[in-house]
Design brief:
Length: 385
């Protein structure tokens, strides 16, 4: 019994094991062995093998843009790259031209990059520079972040970091690959949301009354957001195609994934962190209030907690708006320049999606505060008295 209790107090173990089970077949093996794609050209199916390798730019050359279909306003560069890993390690390859809109090369000599090698049945191969290799800088930034959070918050910061790692792996190594593989969208979304919710509550705060109340309240908030989000997206005919990336996803998946569902899931995931923050804050505030005066009835405890909750609501609503506006600031400026009329601007698909994302999440946030306060006021008085 003691062993079971100890094991349950570390839900990260269970979550990671489940994640590994789902992760290995769909993600690790696909990247290690190469990706096979079936492309249609001229009515015939052609098998294409695409491999990803790291390399280092050793030479760049400005080339003619005619083969790229470009004009005088663009420049094209071809690169000689030394492959640093895999079966082609040590080879010097020349990439297909990359076009840019200024005179500076996109990739500098000596830079480490990622290359893709594409090969068809005809034996021809094409090397392309895909992106910079930035893992080292990102790793340093991550280590600084982890060091500071543990230094300032101690063991709780460590637990929060583990929860963050689980959340990251759940989204990028479980939910996204499974959705791309054509798995049941609702099943994958439900499992992913539950894992995320466990990560931000039980992994970070342990198994106790505070985390259980926060878990329950946040789950209610998610259900509220799902219901309201579905009603709003249906009423406003939001199809999830507001962003250019969504159109690219639709083309890539050939319409297998319903983008309105993806949009709704993104709203839930975006609001989840804020909901958790508010529910944990409400429960913690209520526990502190009750500890100072255990004679308080649940009604008075609810009233005092709501005074704190109102500040949470005011600050978090602004936080949601500013976060969403900041993440799409460049695109909003571009749309504003092309459509200066405010009436047209706010009815652009992308802008409508951002407005709905902010308002639906905010409504869930507004409603979850009194729900959390009510549940906690009843349970805290009943359990601690």
């Amino acid at each position: 019994m003691q062993f079971l209790k100890t094991f349950l107090q570390k839900p990260a173990i269970v979550i990671l094991l489940v994640g590994i089970y789902f992760l290995l077949p769909s993600f690790v093996l696909a990247n290690d062995l190469g990706i096979e794609e079936s492309l249609s050209q001229g009515g015939q199916e052609e098998l294409v093998v695409r491999e990803i390798s790291r390399g280092r730019i050793i030479e760049q050359e400005k080339v003619d843009c005619d083969m790229m279909g470009g004009g005088s306003e663009i420049d094209c560069f071809s690169y000689k790259v030394e492959v640093l890993e895999g079966q082609w390690k040590g080879a010097i390859v020349e990439t297909m031209p990359t076009w840019i809109t200024n005179e500076e090369s996109l990739f500098e000599e000596g830079s480490k990059v990622y290359l893709s090698r594409t090969e068809g049945f005809d034996g021809g191969e094409v090397w392309t520079v895909e992106s910079y290799s930035r893992e080292t800088a990102l790793l340093i930034l991550t280590v600084v972040f982890i060091f500071l959070i543990i230094l300032i918050t101690g063991i709780r910061g460590l637990r929060a970091t583990v929860g963050l790692l689980i959340s990251f792996c759940t989204i990028y190594f479980f939910a996204i690959p499974k959705i791309n593989d054509g798995s049941n969208f609702f099943l994958i979304s439900t499992v992913a949301i539950l894992i995320l919710l466990c990560a931000v509550t039980f992994v970070t705060y342990g198994l106790n009354k505070k985390s259980f109340i926060a878990f329950s309240s946040t789950l209610l908030g998610i259900l509220i957001i799902l219901v309201i989000g579905y009603i709003v997206t249906t009423a406003l005919d939001i199809n999830g195609l507001g962003e250019e990336e969504a159109t690219m996803l639709l083309d890539t998946t050939q319409g297998v994934i319903k983008l309105s569902w993806v949009f709704l899931l993104s709203v839930v995931i975006g609001a989840l962190g804020v909901l958790d923050d508010v529910t944990i804050g409400q429960v913690s505030s209520m526990l502190e209030i009750y500890e100072t005066d255990r004679t308080l009835p649940s009604k008075e405890l609810f009233r005092k907690a709501m005074n704190v909750g109102k500040d949470h609501i005011a600050s978090m609503v602004n936080t949601l708006f500013i976060a969403y506006a900041g993440s799409s600031f460049v695109l909003v400026i571009l749309l504003s320049a092309n459509s200066p009329d405010f009436r047209i601007l706010i009815n652009e698909g992308f802008i409508v999606e951002e407005i709905v994302r902010t308002l639906v999440a905010s409504i869930g946030l507004i409603l979850v505060v009194p729900l959390t306060s009510f549940i906690a006021s009843k349970l805290v008085v009943k359990v601690l008295k």
